[in-house]
Amino acid sequence: MIAVENLTKRYAGVTAVDNLSFTVKRGEIVGFLGPNGAGKSTTMRILSAFMPATSGKATVAGYDVFTQSEEVRRRIGYMPENNPLYLEMRVSEYLNYRAALKGVSSSKRKTRTDEVLERCGLKDVSRRIVGQLSKGYRQRVGLADSLVHDPDLLILDEPTIGLDPNQIRQVRQLIKDLGKRHTILLSTHILPEVEMTCSRVMIINKGKVVASDTPENLTKLIEGGGTVRAEIRGDRAVIERELGALPGVKNVVIEAGNDGFVCATVYAPPRNDVRVHIYEKAAANKWTLRELSRVRQTLEDVFVSITRVEAPPSKQEEEK
Amino acid sequence: MSKLCTLWQREIAAYFLSPIAYLVMVSFLVLNGVGFWMLVMAFDGRTNDVSVMQIFFGSFFYWIGMLMAVPVITMRLFAEEKRLGTIETLMTAPVSDVVVVWSKFLGAATFFALLWLPTLSYSWLLNQFAAAPTPIDWGPVVMAYIGTMLVGFFYVSLGLMASSLTQNQIIAAIIGFVLIAIMFFLGFMINIGPAWLQSFFGYIGSIDHVRDFSRGQLDLRRVILYISATVFVLFCTQKIVESRKWR
Lengths: 320, 247
Fold this sequence. Notes:
The structure holds 2 protein chains of 2 kinds.
Chain A: E1 2-11, E2 14-24, E3 29-33, H1 40-47, E4 55-60, E5 63-64, H2 69-75, E6 76-79, H3 91-101, H4 106-119, H5 135-147, E7 153-157, H6 165-178, E8 183-188, H7 191-197, E9 200-205, E10 208-213, H8 215-223, E11 228-233, H9 236-244, E12 251-256, E13 261-267, H10 275-285, E14 288-294, H11 299-306, H12 315-319
Parallel strand pairs in A: 3-8, 3-9, 6-7, 7-8
Antiparallel strand pairs in A: 1-2, 1-4, 4-5, 9-10, 11-13, 11-14, 12-13
Helix pairs in contact in A: 3-4, 4-5
Chain B: H1 2-16, H2 19-43, H3 52-56, H4 60-74, H5 76-84, H6 86-91, H7 97-116, H8 121-129, H9 138-164, H10 169-185, H11 195-204, H12 206-214, H13 220-242
Helix pairs in contact in B: 1-7, 2-4, 4-9, 4-10, 7-9, 7-13, 9-10, 9-12, 9-13
C-alpha cells in the first residue's frame, strides 16, 4: 500500500526525514512512534502529497506521491495534526462539502455522509456547528472527513492528541474498527496507543526508522523475560545476599516495604527464568513469599532505550 | 469543473457564515448611500449636462468603497486557511492548486458583485423622484457597472495574492490595500516624471478608466488590460500557493 524508498526531507538547514525506507502492506494498522520532532508529521505530509520530499521516492497504492499526486490524494484520507476544520460550518454540511470535494458523486453523497456520521457516532450532532462541539466530537468529525470518500488508506497524524481519557478510548476503539476495512498509518507519541491499536509499530527517531515490528516482539526484544519481582518477608541483608548468589542473577535491588515485606527486583539475562530458584530459596529459608512475577516491560521501556540519546530541542519542533 | 463549483459555493457560504460579510455590506451601502445622497443634494434644482450617475462612478465615496472593501473581502481567503491549518485538508483533497485559486477568486468576485447590487436602484430612484424625469440613458450606466466589475475583479485578484502571502489576515489586508492603492494612485501621477512614464501611468491608473467607462465608452484595450492583468495576478497567486512544494 505504501512504499517509501530513501526518503529525505530537508528544511533550511534541518534534516527532518533522513533516508527513510519502509513499506506498509494492505490491511495493516501501522503506528508511527517517535519523540516530538522525529519526522512523523513531515513523513505523513509527504505521503499525503501536501509537500514533496527533497529526495527519494514514495508511492501510495502504486502511484507516485509527487508525479501522480491527484491519484494518490483520491485514495487517501488524511487527518492532519490538530485536526483543522471549518468551525463555522455544521457537521453534516462540512462532511457533504468534503465529500463533494473528494469527488463523491452527488447521488452517493447523502448515503456516504450518513454512513460516516453513523460510524463515527456523530448522528446526534450532525446539525450542530463544528465550532461548538467538544474536542472529542471534533476529532470524530476529522475522522469522518478522512473516511467520507471511502479511501484505501487512512493517514492519521496524532488522532488522539488533546483528548481526555474517555475520548481517547472512544477514538482508539473507532480506529480499531476502521482497521478492519482500511489500511491505517497513524502517528503518536503516546505509547499505550500503539500497543492497543496497531498491528505493527515503527519507531522513528531523528528522521530514521530505528525499530519496526509487532508491539509484542518489540517488547520481547528488550525484556527477554529476565527481570523478576518478588515480595518476601525476611531479613533484608540475607535476602539480598541469597538472591544475589542465585545462578545467572546479575543484580538485585531491594526496597523495604512498610509492612515487613521487602520488594526485590532481580535482574537476570533473558531466557533464564529465575523464578523457580527464588521460590526454592524462599522455601528453604522459610521466607514468606507474597508475590513472584515477571516484570513485563512496556513499549515505553523499548522506546526509551531505543531513543535514549536525547536530542537537543531541534528546529523541527518549532516548525511544527 | 464540479469541484470548482463546490469550492466556489463554500467560499460564498463562508462569507455569510461570518459577521464580516454583513459588516462590509452595511458599511459599503452606507458609504455609497451617503455619497449618492450628497451628489443628489448638490445637483438639486440645477440643470446639468452630466448625469448624477456619471459623477457617482469615480466620486470620492465610490473610490473609498472600492479601496476599503476589497482588501477586507479578500484578506481571509488564504490567510485564514493557513492559520487554521485547513490549507492542509484542502490541498490534500484531490483538487489542483489552479482550481483552488480560481474558486477563491470567483467566490470573492461574486461577493464583490453582490455589494453593488443595491446601487442598481439608484438610477431608478433618481428617475422616480426627480421633479422633471428624463429618460435614463442606460448605456453609460451599464458601461459604468462593467467597468466597476473589471477594475474590482482586478483588485480582488490583488487582494487574493496578498492573502496567499501570509497567515495573518491583518497583514493580508494591509498588503492588499497597498497593492490596490498603488494601482489607484498611479492615475494621479500622470503629471510626474518623463513623458513616457506619464503615458504609462495614464494607461494603467484606474481613475481615468472608471471615468471613461461611466461616460459610456467601451475601450476594448482597457477591457483586455483588466482581464489579462487579473489572469496574470491569479497565475502569480497560484505560483505562490505552489511554492510550498519547492521552498
